[in-house]
Each structure stands twice: as C-alpha cells, then as structure tokens.
Amino acid sequence: MRSTLKCSVCKQSFDRNTIVQYTPIFNKIAKNYCPDCLKLRQEQDRFAMTVCKIFQLEFPTPRIWKNRSDLQKKYGYTDKVITDCLEYLYFVEKKTVLSESLTLVTPTTVDAMIRYKNRQQVQGQSIARSTTTSYTKKIVNMEAEKPQKVQDFNPDHWLGGE
C-alpha cells in the first residue's frame, strides 16, 4: 500500500494522512486534495453556490466563470471576496438581478462591502453569515481606456459618388 498520494490539483505528493478526499459540488467523483488546494476548492464551491442562489441557476454559466477569472486577474480578488461582495450587493443593498454576470463587482462595491463588514464587526452584528475574514485594500490603477476612433459614415463613398 502506498504511503503517499498525489493532490489532483497541484500534483505534489503528500502523506496519506494529510490528503483529503473531497467531492466538488457539481462533480460526482471524489478527488484527493492537499490542505491548500482543498481550501481553494471549497471557496470555489461556495462561489458557485452563491451565484446559483442569486441568479437562480442550476450551475454557473461559462460567462460567469469568465467574469470571475477577469476579476481575479485584473484586481486580484479571491473567490471569497467576490462571493462576499455578491452577498452584500444582493442581500444587503437589495440589488435586483439584471443579468447573469459579475459586472457589479467593482473596486467601489468591494470597498463598500468592506466598510459594511467592518461596521458590523464594530457593532457586534453579523451579515447574512458570520465570517472571520480580514480584508486588505489593494490600490488598482484604473486608467481610462482610450476611445476608439469612429470614422464618419459617408454613404456616397460606398455608392461610388465620391
């Protein structure tokens, strides 16, 4: 019997006692996870469950996963920050669901969510669920994108009149 097992995510070998078998939400097969990868997978599952609850879906669409990926690359947000921000927007601010995307998750709304959570911790109250996460502010350079030049439409050019 082998004394080490490989993590299915990072592919590193770990002692049999440290590896945990975990079945992801939208998967039927249990996989081996190291403690670090297990934590990330559980955050991802919490994100998926929150999105399904808010947007009333069976499972998140590819567009939502793409939005999540973009938020992680552009601003460095974790699944926990995105999930907490979605919960803040839809359960605290009572935003209505406009579309199945994460476009409302911006640095401004994340800052508002952090301020709200800090106020709740000071007052001793809890948000929809109690969390013990500390957030740090990340300064993001938000340069204005240059608008693309739009050429005037001249129908005479296409009709051969010019």
What is the structure about, briefly put?
The chain has 5 helices and 4 strands; from the N terminus they run E-E-E-E-H-H-H-H-H. The chain is mostly helical.
Task: Explain how this protein is built.
With 162 residues, the chain is mainly alpha-helical. The chain has one domain. Helix content is 44%, strand content 7%. It has five helices and four strands; from the N terminus they run E-E-E-E-H-H-H-H-H. A two-stranded antiparallel ribbon has the order 1-2. Strands 3-4 form a two-stranded antiparallel sheet. Strand 1 (4-6) and strand 2 form a beta hairpin. Helix 1 (35-55) packs parallel to helix 3 (79-92) and helix 3 (79-92) crosses helix 4. The longest helix has 21 residues, at 35-55. The model has no long low-confidence stretch (mean pLDDT 81).
